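Section 3.1: Structural characterization of target chains.
Under the original work plan, the team committed to producing a structural model for every single-chain target entering the pipeline before any wet-lab resources were allocated. The record below documents one such target. The sequence was received from the expression subgroup and is listed exactly as submitted; it comprises 222 residues.
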Amino acid sequence: MRKRISKAKIGQRNYTSSSVDPKKLIVIAFEGNLTELEYFSGIKEFRDEIGLHSLIEIEMLDRIDTRSDPESVKKLVEEYENNPFSKEIFDCLRRSDLCETLDEAGILLEDFMHDKLDDSKKEKFMVAANCANLSIELNDTKEKYAIDNKELWIVIDKDRNSEYSLKTFISDCKYNIVLSNPCFELWLLLHLTNIDEYNKNDLLENNKISKNHRFISKEISD
């Protein structure tokens, strides 16, 4: 089942009768590269239907590489924290061989905005941005990510990690953590069926049953 480590709550706001809530940015990094991305993308797409406040923005830090251990997920958040305004164009810049890390992407974007790039890099930068349909957003990228009210979250699965490594990771991590037990897919299964029909041990053990599936992911895919 899901276990929230941090006392903070996603989307929590304090209301007063004489003030307007500041805009909040929820930044989420996760181990999986498909299920979690689809789920949070759905929240963004159907935000009006589910009642997500209009002042709350969600940013998902999807990975390019295949590293999915908690430390790699945390590093993704750390890079974002150091250069939050550059994440939106990072993928296209990296694939155009203009940078390899978020730090380099942040410097590149800063130089572009201050007209410090030579003509060759500037042309390559614009081609990369246009290919990703991001050229319109370049002027307001800083403004979008200059939101002071941010929450940084890491979503990890218990069944991917040993209990000892998780305890060590959680104690050393300064970010908000959502720990899915045994995995994120169980949260999705709860949306679809009555899990009382399942054997509890089958769910918690979540054994691998094929090359592509563990028990719960197979139930989701069927």
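The radius of gyration is 20 Å.
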